[in-house]
Known about the structure:
single chain; 133 residues; Arc Repressor Mutant, subunit A; 5 strands; 17% strand; elongated
Amino acid sequence: MRVDRQPRCRCRVGPGRFEVRARIERFAEPAVLLLLAEGESHGYQLAEHLEALLDEGRVDFGNLYRLLRALEEEGLVASTWSEEAPGPQKRVYGLTGEGAALLDAWAASLRARSERIGALLARYEALEEPAHP
């Protein structure tokens, strides 16, 4: 799922100045799985929580629902229709056992990446002089 963002992770904003948007591709997938591990939810609730979790702008509902359908087709998420809330019926999504296993795998992968990022930042901070002139 994509959210509003630039197509590149870096761009030049002036002489010797860059804007870098460190991001992890497909980060929405583990974020959705995490939110569903915390409890069942319908699409609008997921979108609200994703906006806060991803901190990358407004979530595209079309992309969110495509992601949810794809996860459901793979057996990672299950949905039911709920009549509990006022208004029209809402599809409520929940995490399956396989979805929980995938979330575990995502967490392990992100943890390993986090360690590599930490090592890179530690080396950067250990530089005697700043990297720029």
